[in-house]
Each structure stands twice: as C-alpha cells, then as structure tokens.
Amino acid sequence: MEFANKEYLLLLLLIVPYLIWYLMYRKKAEPTMRMSDTSVFRNAPITWRVRLTPLPLLLRLLCFVMIVVALARPQTQNAWQNKDIEGIDIMLAIDVSTSMLAEDLKPNRMEAAKQVAAEFINGRPNDNIGLTVFAGEAFTQCPMTTDHGSLLNLLHNVRTDIALRGLIEDGTAIGMGLANSVGRLKDSKAKSKVVILLTDGSNNRGDISPMTAAEIAKSLGVRVYTVGVGTNKIAPYPMHTAGGVQYVNLPVEIDSKTLSDIAAATNGDYYRATNTAELHRIYQEIDKLEKTKLTVKKFSKKYDAYQGFIAVAFALLLLELLLRQTILRRIP
Asked: Within a 10 A sphere around the Cβ of 135, how many other Cβ atoms?
C-alpha cells in the first residue's frame, strides 16, 4: 500500500505530547477527598470499571491514528505483476450460420452454445481463452486472453442473426473457422493447445478444407475437440414472413464423419449434442483437460482506500463517547 500524502503521517508525532499532557496535568483535575487513614482500602478489590478507565484514552488515540492515515490517502499499488499459474491455451470456434437459429436446443442452438461456453469460461479462470466465430467466413471475435470479463462480453455480443442480417457470409466454413483458431495458437508456448469447434452443419464454404486445417493443427501440436450440435432428424426453424414468424422443420445435416476425422487426426475427440444437457456434459468432459504452467502479466490500477479508515475512526469515536457517558461516566 502507498500513501499519496505521506507528510500527514508526521501528525502521528502529536501523540507523544498529548500523552505527556494527559499523564502530567490531566490527573490534577481529578476530584480528591481527604481521608485520615486509607488502610481500610488497601485490600479492596479493583473493580472492572477501574480497570477500563484507560480505555477511552486508547480509543481516542486509535481514532486519531485512523484519521491521520486517512488524510495520508492510502492507495493500492499501481504496477505490472508477473504471476505463474496453471492453465492451457484454448480457442473456442463457434458456428454462427443461420441454421444455428434452429430451436431444437432451447432457446436456440446459438444461445445454448453461448450459455454453455460462458459457463466453461467461468470454470477455467487460469486459462488463456479466445473466440473465433464462423459461418461462410471466419474472424476472431476475441484473441486469447486471461481477461475473461472482456471475453464474456464479446461472447454475449455475438448476435444470433449475424449471418441472417448479412454482416457475415452465410454458410458453414468449418475449415476456415478451424484454420483461424489454429492461427491464434501457432505462437503459443503452452504445453497444451486446444481448439473446441462447435458446428451444426457440414462444410460448404471457404478456401481451406476441414482436413487441411486439421493437418495444420496436427503439425502445430494443437488438439481439436469437435462438437456437432442438433437433433438426429429434423429441427424447428423460425422463418420470417410477411405474416410474422412461422416455423418450418428443416433436416439436420451434420457431417459427423468429417468432424470425427478432424478430432482423430489431432488426437482429440468428437462429441454429439442433441440437447442442452448433453452440451453441458460435453463441456464438462473437455474441462478435464491437462494443465500447464503459464506466466500472466497483470496490471493493477491505483485507487484510494481511505474509506475504511474513516469508518473505523468514526466507530471508535462513537464508542469512546458512549463509554464516557454510560458505564465509565465520572461524577463529578
């Protein structure tokens, strides 16, 4: 802890003359009574009130110390810190094509995937985690970071209708999504480098085939866990028409063979999620991945921390006044 106004700490020296004044002159003002013989009081027991007589003085001194410390403006330290932690490097690659709006998972595939991914991120606070989204093309929504608050904000900002509104080309470019994620991991020094790829379709867009991207991942030591999400037959899909939203049943076309081959080529695993509960279970299994040491550099900002000292000073002052006016009150 640092102090912005260190010179105020010199006020603590005033405690010494105050104690001298209290011991030398304060007792002169105490009432006295002449007694012919005090031997009768020699063996009288000392009451607890007498023992607590110095307590108000002690409370007043502590109150003064708290006020002086608050005036000195204590602040947290402002510095970069290197910290060794246990974790791995992970890229989440999530399909955002229009088919992810199907509602066989509640509320729909996209929102279910985001919710489970957010829980997965919260459960791995020490990992470097990034996010790639893909449809007919792919881009990095968030590079790998241990600032999971920012990552979760960017994840929540992924719109379910991003491809429907034309912000990204529609389709399913699995190879592009995987290649983008692997590109973020190529310079990683972590012992374990992982891509978790979630999709509900088969590759029909992009300049890089899924198996080519898988070979690139294998050469860089990246393990890929693939997740096919959607029911086994048909799924209700919301169609926007002039009369409002109408639901049509669309067939579920997940290229399980390609996803399984990608996982096998990179020493990963392929999972099939037909409902939200299975998706939770899959992420829990992936959560058991091995961990490795990482060096994280964090920056902490300064902020004033005097409020607690003021609160303590106020409480001490109230306690002193209460004791002086009640159980430790002196008459006259």
From this structure: 28
Distance, CA of 205 to CA of 210 (rounded, Å): 10
State if pTM tops 0.70. Answer: no
CA angle 35, 37, 41 (to 5 degrees): 95
- What's the pLDDT tens digit per position in 251-310? 888 999 999 999 999 999 999 999 889 999 999 888 877 665 555 555 556 678 888 889
CB 137 within 8 A of CB 173: yes
For residues 180 and 311, what is the distance between their CA atoms, to the nearest angstrom? 53
Which two tokens mark 265? 């080529």
* Number of alpha carbons in the 13 Å side-chain half-sphere of residue 92: 27
Q: What is the DSSP letter of 40?
A: G
Separation CA 73–CA 6 (nearest Å):
8
Give per-residue pLDDT as tens, 144-201: 998 999 999 999 998 867 877 778 889 999 999 999 999 999 988 888 899 999 999 8
CA dihedral 219, 225, 230, 233 (to 10 degrees): 70
Q: Which helix (H) or strand (E) holds 294?
A: strand 292-300
User: How far is residue 30's CA from residue 24's CA, in Å, rounded to a whole number?
Assistant: 12
d(CA 135, CA 176): 9
The closest alpha carbon to 268, from 323, 201, 217, belongs to: 217
Q: What is the DSSP string of 72-131?
A: T-EE---EEEEEEEEE-EEEEEEE-SGGGG-SSSSS-HHHHHHHHHHHHHHT-TTSEEEE
Distance (Å, whole) CA 289 – CA 11: 57
Mean pLDDT over 219-242 rounds to 90
- Cα torsion 124, 125, 128, 134: sign: positive
How do residues 53-104 score in pLDDT, each as one tens digit?
A: 778 888 889 999 999 998 888 887 655 555 555 578 999 999 999 999 999 9
Averaged pLDDT of the chain: 85
